[in-house]
């Protein structure tokens, strides 16, 4: 894979944000705020880290990406379309009758590894997938994206134990730590802080990054495993609704759909950012 | 085990033991066979498996949701995974993982529910699985099997290992006699096994209730001259509609027997098919009723609810009198 420059990756992020807004606006449905908070992470994963593309998606040695926070599927669809897994125009059918492009990832969509959507499932699936690599001495790696709001699901902590028990240093979990969930802030709903101490005590090696800083994300992924014999956790500090000023850190944009005026304003703002890159 | 009808029945082992020995045979030649356990290798009779194939057993600890999720992850990359846990916990605690990570995602895990039904007896309701058929029947893309004897168990395990589909296979830990000589036996998922042919009534049973149904048939024949067909309906889903149609066409009564709540299991599955296809045979479902289950051993509980030679024979006689 040809390495993209940091500028090219930054341009990708803006384009992905435009597409997320475009297709959510078209479908009149979607998880807008969370898709915008995680899309830089997906950008770096698919354009820098993962050895995955449509040409090798059947290879047993491909890296795996499993999206535990399935509801921000719009970010994933937009990135997969850009990678050529399917024509971007497919996304015009999002949420329509008989479309495979529904509100959560399904394997009916080329490029999706696992059906997710119920929270607290991705980490166990990833542990099993990473464990199989260890058993077969394969060197693929497994990446999973968790939302901070799904951390209270007990199954995450069961899986966290198994990951360190089996020394899965081929596993990397990323928490999209945008600090908001549907009801209120994660701190108000169920405070899971300190997340780093918890995972460290569960046997993980943990790093914090600015989840919108392409350079920091690249550096963190390059450093994986953070410690030999330990699974890696990246706590990516993000902003829900990132990139659209009227959406940033505003609760209602969890699954808010922009009006015509809001859509135009969002596109204009993103175009302005693009012009500076 | 003694004479049933007119032939000697071979004494058998617990289906659980046969599961374990069959899995060991498979693992010896296929390194992709993996057993995943939740501190259940002892109760799953997998200690020898773990000793022989330490690289093919994954211990999760007591965390059933994670057991099923990890199993699904392993299966998604080509492992032939047997996720082994008490049926009660596997199908209740981890139901969402079964629904999403196994069935919906088409990760072909073989879920093995050990000590199913009321096998745990006096350990009580927390340890009973009288809901498993019902909840799993309502989930798309999972084959549900309750082998009756050692032959069905070894066939189910071996055939499931070779299949690309998700399975739930449950059995108990009581020694089960062989229902037919192996030379007369065949096994195919979704095809009921006719153990005995008769003219007056049909018993459709599953799992560990097939044997008492067969005993009841012998008793009725000997004492009242009533001749019963006995079917081991080892596959609860997909149900053998052809065989149901055939037995319904005789017009004779049908009695179903299962170690499961009377709601949502084998009996209601048969009733639903028959009624919707215009069959109106006299019909009775035997199982565990909707009440706080009586306490006691598995035998005590079977006796209490009539899932026995005499209990089934009595219900059959009543059904024939109607």
Radius of gyration of chain B: 19 Å
Radius of gyration of chain A: 18 Å
Strand order of the largest sheet of chain B: 4-3-5-6-8-7-12
CATH topology annotation of chain A: Rossmann fold
The greatest interface between two protein chains, and residues involved on each side, is: A-B, 31 and 28 residues
Measured distance between first and last alpha carbons of chain A: 23 Å
How helix-rich are the residues of chain A, as a percent range? 40-55%
Strands of the widest sheet of chain A, in order across it, are 1-2-3-5-4
Please state the structural category of chain B: alpha/beta
Structural class of chain A: alpha/beta
Q: What's the mean pLDDT score of chain A?
A: 97
Q: Tally the helices of chain A.
A: 9
Strands of chain B, total number: 14
Question: From N to C, what is the helix and strand string of chain B?
Answer: EEHEHEHEHHEHEHEEEHEEHEHEHH
Q: Helix amount of chain B, in percent? A: 25-40%
Oligomer: heterodimer
**Integer count of domains of chain A:** 1
> Secondary-structure element sequence of chain A?
HHEHHEHEHHEHEH
Task: Please identify, by name, the CATH architecture of chain A.
Answer: 3-Layer(aba) Sandwich
Top keywords for this entry?
heterodimer, A: 277 residues, alpha/beta, Rossmann fold, 5-stranded parallel β-sheet, B: 322 residues, 2 domains, 7-stranded mixed β-sheet, 5-stranded mixed β-sheet, 12 helices, 14 strands, 20% strand
Q: What would a concise description of this structure say?
A:
Chain A is an alpha/beta fold and 277 residues long. Chain A contains nine helices and five strands; from the N terminus they run ααβααβαβααβαβα.
């Amino acid at each position: 894979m040809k390495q993209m420059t940091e500028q090219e990756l930054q341009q990708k992020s803006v384009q992905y944000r435009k597409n997320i807004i475009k297709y959510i606006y078209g479908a009149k449905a979607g998880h807008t705020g969370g898709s915008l908070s995680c899309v830089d992470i997906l950008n770096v994963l698919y354009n820098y880290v993962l050895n995955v593309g449509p040409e090798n998606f059947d290879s047993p040695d491909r890296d795996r990406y499993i999206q535990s926070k399935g509801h921000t599927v719009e970010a994933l669809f937009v990135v997969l379309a850009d990678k050529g897994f399917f024509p971007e125009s497919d996304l015009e059918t999002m949420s329509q009758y008989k479309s495979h492009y529904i509100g959560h990832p399904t394997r009916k969509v080329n490029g999706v590894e696992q059906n997710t959507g119920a929270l607290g499932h991705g980490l166990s699936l990833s542990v099993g997938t990473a464990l199989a690599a260890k058993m077969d001495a394969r060197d693929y790696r497994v990446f999973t994206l968790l939302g901070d709001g799904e951390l209270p699901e007990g199954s995450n902590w069961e899986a966290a134990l198994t990951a360190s028990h089996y020394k899965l240093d081929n596993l990397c979990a990323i928490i999209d730590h945008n600090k908001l969930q549907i009801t209120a802030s994660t701190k108000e709903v169920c405070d899971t802080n300190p997340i780093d101490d918890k995972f460290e005590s569960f046997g993980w090696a943990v790093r914090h990054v600015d989840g919108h800083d392409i350079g920091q994300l690249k550096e963190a992924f390059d450093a994986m495993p953070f410690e030999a014999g330990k699974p890696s956790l990246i706590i990516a500090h993000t902003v829900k609704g990132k990139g659209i000023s009227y959406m940033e850190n505003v609760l209602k944009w969890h699954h808010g759909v922009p009006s015509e005026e809001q859509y135009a304003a969002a596109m204009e703002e993103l175009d302005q950012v693009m012009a500076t890159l | 085990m003694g004479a049933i009808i007119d032939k000697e029945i071979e004494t058998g082992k617990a289906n659980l033991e046969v599961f374990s020995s069959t899995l060991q045979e498979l693992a010896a030649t296929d390194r992709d066979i993996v057993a995943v356990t939740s501190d259940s290798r002892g109760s799953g009779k997998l200690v020898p498996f773990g000793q022989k194939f330490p690289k093919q057993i994954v211990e999760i600890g007591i965390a059933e949701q994670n057991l099923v999720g990890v199993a699904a992850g392993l299966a998604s990359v080509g492992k032939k995974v047997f996720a082994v846990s008490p049926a009660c916990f596997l199908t209740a605690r981890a139901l969402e993982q079964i629904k999403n990570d196994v069935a919906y995602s088409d990760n072909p895990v073989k879920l093995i529910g050990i000590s199913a039904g009321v096998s745990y007896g006096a350990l009580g309701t927390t340890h009973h699985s009288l809901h498993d058929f019902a909840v799993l029947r309502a989930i798309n893309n999972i084959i549900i099997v309750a082998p009756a004897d050692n032959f069905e168990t070894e066939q189910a395990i071996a055939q499931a290992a070779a299949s690309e589909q998700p399975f739930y296979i449950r059995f108990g830990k009581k020694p089960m006699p062989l229902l037919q000589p192996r030379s007369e036996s065949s096994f195919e998922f979704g095809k009921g096994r006719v153990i005995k042919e008769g003219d007056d009534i049909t018993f459709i049973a599953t799992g560990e209730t097939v044997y008492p149904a067969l005993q009841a048939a012998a008793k009725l024949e000997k004492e009242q001259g009533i001749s019963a067909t006995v079917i081991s309906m080892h596959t609860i889903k997909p149900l053998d509609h052809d065989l149901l149609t055939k037995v319904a066409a005789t017009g004779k009564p049908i009695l179903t027997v299962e170690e499961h709540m009377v709601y949502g299991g084998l009996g209601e599955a048969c009733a639903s098919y028959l009624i919707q296809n215009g069959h109106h045979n006299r019909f009775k479902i035997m199982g565990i009723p909707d009440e706080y289950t009586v306490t006691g051993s598995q035998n005590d509980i079977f006796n209490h609810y009539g899932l026995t030679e005499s209990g089934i024979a009595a219900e059959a006689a009543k059904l024939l009198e109607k």
